[in-house]
Amino acid sequence: MDNERAVLSYLKEKYSTEGWLQRDKISVKDALKVLILDPLKASLGAQSDSSSFHIRLTYSEASDEALGVSKTTHESKRRKTDAENGSNCISENSKVYEPCIFSVHCNKMPIFFSGRYFKYSRNVSQSRWIIDDERMGEASVEEILGGNILPACLGDSYKFHAAGREDIDVRMLGSGRPFLIEVQNSRQCPSEQSLKEVEEKINYSEKKLVGVKDLKCIGSQCWAMMREGEAEKQKQYVALVWIARPLEEKDFNSISSLKELKILQKTPVRVLHRRSPLDREKIIHWMKVEKIKGHSHYFLLHLCTQAGTYIKEFVHGDLGRTTPSMGSILGCRAEIIQLDVTDVKMGDE
Fold it and tell me: Does the keyword field hold Disulfide bond (predicted)?
């Protein structure tokens, strides 16, 4: 290909009046593909078609050691001098004499597994979380799911994707959160029975930190579908809230009567170090209050919100950075004690 570029450059300059020479030609690369494909079909007894199994043939230049460092240095100087002089002539130094290095690599395209996960612990992060070589939390959803699915596929590695995320101290309950596991270069695709066994292994583990349901192998197009649905999804929560004054009967009506409430949230103080300082308008679709017997300062707040709403900040107001907030609605200080996600509805649900 180096020689091809040098020859074409030289010919185009020398025969600039020849129109046919200025038009694009079939490249050495494309010609090589055509020449190699038929012999490969014949020798392997296979047809060339779209497949999840790929064979990569790599032709690369010989290393600097093989070519000689002094020669390489001399060539680069010669090319620089030629370029400065505006010369495109073919020199001996522009030709390739050394044979290329050839290698063969076989791999399978990624396979995908979908499902919904549950997080039962307030000390488990969604993805692996390491700060200054120290693990945050007891484990992660990513490692528990991926670590059980990967061996069933005999794959090289995996990537974890989820429709949104929850904080480490927030449980994921209800219907679970949709996720995808992408397994790289799998040697086998697990059967339905194998996936059932993986589910059972996770669900009946001794610590019961994470659960999973509806685990199945799917096509890669579902990754795009999940991302499309994520932008439109609604999320439901239940929060344990403390307020500075006793809860009154009128508070029940004032909260439950608020439908499609628009709030404005500045980027929370707790995530300013990793998020852009923006103003985000979000919608609280509905809310309802549940009393806690014997505790007038505490109540359970059930709410359904637009994706991306910061619930903790909606409750306590984040120093006035979220308006309105539960505190401003009730006219007193409000704090969130615990938070659970109870449902994640995708765009098509």
Answer: no
Q: What contacts 74, CB < 8 A, 6 or more positions away?
A: 93
Q: Could you check whether the bond before residue 246 is cis, i.e. omega within 30 degrees of 0?
A: no
pLDDT tens-place string over residues 238-264: 999 999 999 999 999 999 999 999 999
Question: Which alpha helices (H) appear in 207-266, and where do they start and end?
Answer: 221-232, 249-256
How far the first Cα of the chain sits from its last, in Å, is 53
Q: How does DSSP assign 233-247, residue by residue?
A: -EEEEEEEEEESS--
Spatial separation of the C-alpha atoms in residues 19 and 25, rounded to whole Å: 12
Picking from 141, 340, 326, 166, the residue whose alpha carbon sits closest to that of residue 251 is 326
Report whether 61 contacts 72 (CB < 8 A): no
Q: How confident is residue 52, by pLDDT bands cut at 50, 70 and 90?
A: confident
Q: What is the pTM of this model?
A: 0.71
The count of residues in the chain is: 349
Give the chain's largest Cα–Cα span: 96
Query: Catalytic amino acids?
Result: 167
Main-chain phi, psi angles of 306, to 5 degrees: -70, 150
Chain center to CA of 204: 28
* Residue pair 198/149 in contact by the 8 Å Cβ criterion: yes
d(CA 207, CA 302): 28
Distance CA 220, CA 229 (A): 15
